[in-house]
Each structure stands twice: as C-alpha cells, then as structure tokens.
Amino acid sequence: MIPSVHNLATLLNRFDCAMLTVIDAEGRPRTRPMTPLKAPFNGHLWFHVGADGQPASEIGRGADVSVAYGAADAGPYVTVYGWAIVLRDPPYVRSVWRAASEGRHLPHTLSKQLICVTARAAEVWDAASTASRRIFAFSNAHPMCEEDSAVAHEAAVAPRLVVSSGISCAQ
Fold first, then answer.
1. What is the CATH number of the domain that holds 131?
2. How many domains does the structure of the chain reveal?
3. What is the pLDDT of residue 155?
4. What is d(CA 140, CA 156) in angstroms, rounded to the nearest whole number?
5. Which of 5, 69, 140, 141 matches a 20 to 30 Å C-alpha distance to 170?
C-alpha cells in the first residue's frame, strides 16, 4: 500500500496527546506534552498555546520542531518534522478553534495563540516491528507567514508526498 496524506491524517487522529520538541535559546531540546487540535490534516498540525505561553516564546518567529505521537498500548508511532510558527491573530485563532472543536467558542481562560506546524517529513513505526520504518517527505511544504496565515490556510493545497522508495503520490 502506498502511504498518503490521508493515511497519515488517519494515524494522527488516533492520538490525544503529542510531544512537541523545540530547540531553546541555549541549544538544548525542550520537549513538552501538547494537545493537538482535531483540525483536518492538510499538511499543518495545530496546537493551542497554554496561558504560560512557554512554547510560543521558544518558537519565536519560527523554529524547526519535531512532534512525536505514540501510545504504549497501541501502535503505530509517528514523528512529524516541520517548521512551527505562532499565530496571534485573534479572529483567525477563534476560527481555527471553532473548526477543530465542532463550533465551540474559545474559552476566555485560554491564550489567544496557536502553534501551527507545517509538516516537512514524517516517520511511522509499526508497533509490531519497530525495525519497519516508512519515511515521508512533503515536497511542497512551505511555512505559513503569520501576516497571511488566513489566506495561506484557506488556499492550502494537499501536500504531495515523496516516499522513501521514490514513489510520489498526492492525496
């Protein structure tokens, strides 16, 4: 079976928690649990920034990150590598939140920031055989600019996958 964006999206929807790794100002990796928003996967992963804003300050104006997903009781395991930005446009943050949370309004107690990770590559390990690894590379993954995030998100084209075997496919 040739992997696709749909297959990756299906895998990612299984997980309620992810581990986001960012390199801090001193060059050390900082990893923290994040709750992914259940927005439709189109090459972007979305995370709500907590009130402390710590991951947002480490990402700054953009950063290379990795996002790991897994559960001890059920595989597979997935790692997504990409470029993260912090979106601070309140109307846009509310619209993404509503789309991902089935129309619920963004609670006032939460920060008005989102982290958007534009996927550049992903690795998938089957729980039965951790030696079996498939590598995906998104050939047209371009980071979104905060200034035009709404336009970029609305006009997003399904990413084209390049599989390690050299086969390319689109969703």
1. 2.30.110.10
2. 1
3. 35
4. 11
5. 69
- CA torsion sign for 151, 118, 108, 105 is positive
The mean pLDDT value of the chain amounts to 72
Q: Angle at CA 119, nearest 5°, toward 116 and 111?
A: 15
Dihedral of the alpha carbons of 30, 67, 95, 16, in degrees to the nearest 10: -100
Task: Tell me what the mean pLDDT of segment 50-66 comes to.
Answer: 82
- Structure confidence at residue 102 as a pLDDT band (50, 70, 90): low
Q: Which of 113, 105, 95, 109 is nearest to 39 (CA)?
A: 95
62: left (phi over 0), alpha (psi -120 to 50) or beta: left
DSSP state of 110: S
Structural domain that includes position 132: 5-170
End-to-end alpha-carbon separation of the chain, Å? 13
Is the pLDDT at 75 greater than 50? The verdict is yes
Render 114-141 in DSSP notation, one character per residue.
EEEEEEEEEEEEETTEEEEEEEEEETT-
pTM: 0.72
